[in-house]
# Entry
Amino acid sequence: MFKTQEGSTRQLIEFCIGYFTLYVITGISVKYFTGTGAGFPNMSDMKYLVYNTMGGNLLALFIVIILKWYKLESNNYSKLFNIKIPSELYYIVPSGIC
# Structure
């Protein structure tokens, strides 16, 4: 989509703009779906949280499947209980938990 050099300041600015835009959209959608008054669905906060979490997880899974990121090879492997695992799991799993 963008033709900027990887690791450049321009790429960082594009990421920041994308993050800010999606953050604003998320904030507006919370107000729309949980607000009261004419035209608002008046969804409960907990119901919105459940749907938002499911939607975010499904969107991320959809992107991984469409871009075939599951086929990427690891840079390095390590052994854990005689099982060969990608070294990236050591920071991906804690990141996902947090």
Summary: The longest helix spans residues 9-34. The first strand starts at residue 77 and ends at 80. Strands lie at 77-80, 83-86. The mean pLDDT is 86.
